[in-house]
Amino acid sequence: MIQVKRQIILNESLGADIYRLSIQAPEIAAAAQAGQFIMVKAGMGFDPLLRRPFSIHQVEGDEIRILFKRLGKGTALLSKLNAGERLDILGPLGNAFTLKQPPCCLIGGGMGVAPLLFLAQTMLSRGITPHILLGARNKEELMAFLPAFQALGCPLQYATDDGSMGQRGFIIEALPPLLAKDNKVKWQVYSCGPYPMMRAVAAICHSKWPCQVSMETMMACGISACLGCTVTARNTNEKGGQYLHVCQDGPVFAADRIEWKS
Ligand SMILES: Cc1cc2nc3c(=O)[nH]c(=O)nc-3n(C[C@H](O)[C@H](O)[C@H](O)COP(=O)(O)OP(=O)(O)OC[C@H]3O[C@@H](n4cnc5c(N)ncnc54)[C@H](O)[C@@H]3O)c2cc1C
Ligand code: FES
After folding, report:
1. The domain containing residue 153 runs over which residues?
2. Cβ(219) to ligand 1 under 6 A?
3. Is 179 within the bounds of a domain?
């Protein structure tokens, strides 16, 4: 884990309140693995006090990129930063997706697509071509991140909740037909997105197809100091505990390790 203050290369508005922020951070770029995240200090002073977590979206040479949606105070401040300004970041944090034998399916929704671009690029660099499923609320949101995925040249399906682009409805609907195409094939599924989407992915895959999910909880510290980022485990661990800490044990988990709440 490295804490550095590094220069912003570019902060692009991609529409739908979504931004892609590129930071010159050679130390983090060299160590980063797909699935890991960084903690970003959004303001200069004490407001907001806490760093905000963001998945590593891309690594290009010395540069790391995050993809974020403007939601509250922290992301509003981040959206106003300009190239040349310096950002205080901590990372890479957490664990990474485990690469398994293909075929692989990546399914993401909303800002959950962020770590999947890095994952897809990592897979491609190892000769694995993943099948990618992406969901968004509408065309504007989808167009904020779709071109970067299209540029990879992988098989790609997408859906929007309102049908303004691609299939109408939730992208999760595309998963069962894909997995069922050939019963002899053992798909590996990787998912990140809203909780209900990952819960549905986990239910579809349960005991048939190995599935890894990247969980997003509220995080105060990101370094296992506040214990504020817990999710409930399906089984108790060797110490009798039943909680998993997303910042330390995750954010990536085997979907069957999670006790999914309705
Ligand atoms: C491991 C991890 C990776 C993440 N990666 C990304 C990413 O790549 N891109 C991205 O846009 N966002 C990502 N998030 C969520 C992101 O951290 C929050 O959107 C951000 O902290 C909001 O900060 P804010 O100050 O703008 O909002 P706040 O003012 O803190 O909150 C505004 C609204 O956002 C909600 N919110 C705040 N934090 C979270 C959170 N962690 N998860 C869900 N809802 C939240 C609040 O409940 C509130 O409704 C990630 C979260 C985690 C834990
Ligand atoms: S965010 Fe503090 S322990 Fe995980």
Report:
1. 104-214
2. yes
3. yes
